[in-house]
Amino acid sequence: MIAALRRALARLASLFTRSADDRELDEELELHLAALEAEHLRRGASGEEARRLARQELGNLTELREAHRATRGVPLLDSLWRDLRAAVRSLRRDAALTTSALLIVGLGIGASVTVFSVVDALLIRPLPFADADRLVWIANGESDNLSAQTTQVRNLQELREAARSFDDIAGFSPFYGVGDVRLTGDDAPERVTLVPVTAGFFPLLGVRPTEGRFFTADEARWGAPRTVVLSHGFWQRRYNGDPAVVGRGIVLDGEAATIAGVLPPTFDFAATFTPGRPADLFEPFPLAPETNRRGNTLALIGRLASGATLEQAAAEAKAIAGRFPVGREGDHRRNKLDPNLSPLRIRVAGAFRFGIGVVAAAVGFLLLLICANVSNLLLAKGATRRREMAVRAALGAGRGRLIRQLLVEGAVLATGGALLGIAVATLAIGMIGSLQGTAIPLLQDVRLDRSALLFAVLATAVTALGTGLLPALQISTTSPQAALADGGRGSTRAGGRLRRALVMTEMAVVCVMLTGAGLLTRSLINVLRVQPGFDPSGVVTVRVDPDASYRTVAEQVAYFDALLEQVLAVPGVETAGLTDALPFGNNFGWRRWNADLPGQEQEDGPKPLVRLIDGDYFHAMRLSLLTGRAFTRADDATAEPVVIVNEPLAQLLWPGRDAVGQRLRSSGVIRQVVGVVSEARYFSLEQASGPEMYFPMRQSPHFQVIDLVVRTPEGASTIAPALMTALGRVDRNLPAMTVRTLTRLMDDTLFTRRSIALLVVGFACFGLLLASLGLYAVIAYAVAQRRQEIGVRMALGATPGAVRRQVLRETLALAAAGMAVGIPAAWLTSKAIRGLLFGVTPTDPLTAVAVLSALVVVAALAGLIPARHAARVDPISALQSG
Fold first, then answer.
1. Which of the residues 386, 389, 560, 780 has an alpha carbon 20 to 30 A from that of 469?
2. What sign results for the dihedral spanned by CA atoms 552, 555, 557, 559?
């Protein structure tokens, strides 16, 4: 055993001492040769005769060297090393082809590794929590809207007490706004984002504090002194990572609070649960009657008990919720709980799973195109190497040896492309990780890790096999006799058929990709054409809610009146208004309250969105007032409660009648309708908001955040300094806030759709370029091979125009064959992406016509240059060269 191990180690060591060993062997052979030559000289042979006899007696020196190498090294590795050196020399001789292939493979592998990194972070890699596979999302119903999945405090308490399938259930309130709290007391005033969570939220996830501790039961009581936990990013940014901040006092909205602890850097709440809405601080959400009266305010997460399954937990939760009473309980309403359980991983990925899957499929198609295209390049190169392969075969190289040589060349190309691809992926992943404010979760976790590198190795291996196998099999079948006798025309014809088949495959694949890209582009255009119901151009916004020092309604009204007065005096400001729920603002504070006719209350009645506004909000937004009037300063706390409804709610409650002057009941208050406005889209351009109610802020001071909406012809950067100066005259402690344009907010809601469309379109265009290059190469090569035939035809009277038309017909026929396969495949693929389409069907005729037209035009252009070359063939020179 030890001897065998020593021999194996000696063989491996010889790989690194090959040159020295060869020199020693040559010296030893020369010594043996000299000794034999001296012996023959002693026996009377002449000098030349003695050397000849010595060489004859010693044997073939080349065979001796090879035999010695076989005994001292690893023959397979030696052979592969020689193949590798030969492959590098061969590729270096054709620098143009090698460079093209490296760029094509590099871009393809770079795109695939980048998309895999996103897929890995979003769908594959476990969430950064302890036993993440036991965490489940408990939605209230089946809505995709987070704010519609929440439940009531009392429901959480009773579900947690009765359920045995869970170790614990916790939650957080998604109804918070970005920058909704003023932080003062320890440094410059700043707007921060505060997220309420139940006391057991962090322990349930298995998160441990980096500094300090989490909330105690006493701190989570109603009316307890305020306590907060800092996110790790906010701790680093605001306090430079100082551990001494634990226990320090700060002021939030004028109220004292104590810092209890700091979250670890591995926990990114916003990236996981509310992407696009950063979280700076966390405070305990009291499970008390006071918070229960607020209605559905908590998003729930449960941890399955050991041995419990998701199906068991779901059945148990359904059964428990079925026992909850629904309706009024004393002075508050008990809302329905319809638990819908799913793995937390699925909930985090959400609707983005499908879009990421579409992009991943596009990359898969692109890799297929790359393999076909590079195979075509290697086939074209192989046509010039038929004699080389024939000579090798004639000298004893078997078919397997030839195939291995050509596969090694493909592997070298794929490996070089992979190195370039990893560099491309590194840049792309860095850009993805730096994206802020997007609604795609876990983007900050996208990285080039071991999984991505392993995928890159796998993609490289598949690419090497896909690009090298067909050329290797085709070239290795070349008959040495035929290749040496007549140039291997039969093999050339076989190679031509194979290359045509590859081009048809490319055209079919690119037909599928272009169809998907066309449908996604049409959908994006249709979304951009949707009218939101107001005019976002020329509107800028800024957060202006007062701190807790403005306690009474009168103080708040005076504050806002002063703000509007100062803002309206700024040059360039046309009009201004206030709202507590900014359109497209990722504001989950939008509430849905019941709206019934007095005396006709019903459990399942309409629940329109509720929005608080003041000032000339409708005028600033250019939201059409259809009938009635807007709110005035007279609509204050002393006046009759009033409401403005939108057209869908008016038609729902008073079909065929004028809604102005009617009354409705909402949250126990009867209000008179004073106006009807047109329908607007506030969530996104794809989603209608449905029924809505607008309340005057002077009558409904219960708000969390307030945004100023200003219409101005000036740009945000131009008007911002004057606006902040004007606001500072009213509130000197107003923290600096970014002045945002409503157009930018609307564009942010389209980020995911636009990104998916752009990626798929980019991949499709790259694929179209590859397919056109492949088609051009096949036709150009065919024209070169048929040069003598074309010369004969022209000598017999064929005109250059006829030759051009013939070549173009062949080009279009080849493209048409590929499209014939691609059209049915494109139809099936289009049905698969139906969920991403908007305003267009999978069988959209305009898209189909555009795709087919593009393919025909590209095919014609690819065949035009070879057709012109064919038409310029000189019959005499062609016949002479033949």
1. 780
2. negative
Identify which has the larger pLDDT, 281 or 46: 281
How much is the pLDDT for 767?
Answer: 84
CA-to-CA dists, residue 525 to 519, 645, 757, 838, angstroms: 10, 30, 10, 9
State both tokens at 192. 């921060």
- Specify the DSSP element, H or E, that contains 692: strand 692-696
Q: Where are the beta strands (DSSP E) in 270-402?
A: 281-284, 299-304, 327-329, 332-334, 339-343
| Surface-to-core class of residue 68, CB atoms within 10 Å of its CB (0-12 exposed, 13-18 middle, 19+ buried) | middle
Beta bridge partners, 576, equal 710
Q: In this structure, how many other beta carbons lie within 10 angstroms of the beta carbon of residue 44?
A: 8
- State the Cα–Cα distance between residues 113 and 86, nearest whole angstrom: 29
Q: pLDDT at position 675, please?
A: 94
- Quote the Cα angle for 375-380-383, to 5°: 120
- AA letter at 147: S
Q: CA–CA distance from 263 to each of 168, 202, 203, 234, 271 (Å)? A: 21, 9, 12, 10, 14
Q: Residue 5: its pLDDT value, please? A: 57
Q: Which residue carries 């055993």 as its tokens?
A: 1
Region label for 542, one of left (φ > 0), alpha (ψ between -120 and 50) or beta (otherwise): beta
Instruction: Give me the pLDDT at residue 488, please.
Output: 46
Q: Mention every residue, 6+ apart, whose C-beta is less than 8 A from residue 708.
A: 541, 542, 543, 544, 563, 567, 576, 577, 578, 727
Residue type, 702: H
pLDDT higher than 60, residue 267: yes
DSSP letter assigned to residue 477 = T
Mean of pLDDT over the chain: 81
3-class DSSP state of 228 = strand
Overall average pLDDT of the 173-189 stretch: 77
CB atoms closer than 10 angstroms to residue 423: 12
Rounded to 5 degrees, φ, ψ at 526 are -65, -40
Three-state DSSP class for residue 828? helix
Q: Residue 779: which region, alpha, beta or left (left: phi > 0; alpha: psi -120 to 50)?
A: alpha
Element containing residue 379 per DSSP (H, E): helix 352-383
As a whole number, mean pLDDT of residues 394-412 equals 66
Q: Give SS3 for 167.
A: strand
N- to C-terminal Cα separation, the chain: 66
Q: What's the rounded mean pLDDT across residues 270-278?
A: 78
pTM above 0.85, yes or no: no
Distance CA 345, CA 120 (A): 12
What is the spatial distance between Cα 543 and Cα 301, in angstroms, rounded to a whole number?
Answer: 31
Look at residues 125, 198, 189 and name the one whose alpha carbon lies nearest to residue 160. Answer: 198
- Kindly tell me the burial class for residue 306, based on how many C-beta atoms sit within 10 Å of its own C-beta (0-12, 13-18, 19 or more): exposed
Rounded to an integer, what distance in angstroms lies between the CA atom of residue 532 and that of residue 689? Answer: 10
Nearest to 286, CA basis, from 225, 353, 245 = 225
Which of 101-115, 591-605, 835-849 is predicted most confidently?
A: 835-849
Nearest to 345 by CA among 123, 91, 605: 123
Band (pLDDT 50/70/90 cuts) for residue 208 is very high
Containing 693, the helix (H) or strand (E) segment is strand 692-696
Q: What is the pLDDT of residue 462?
A: 83
Of all residues in the chain, the percent with pLDDT exceeding 70 is 80
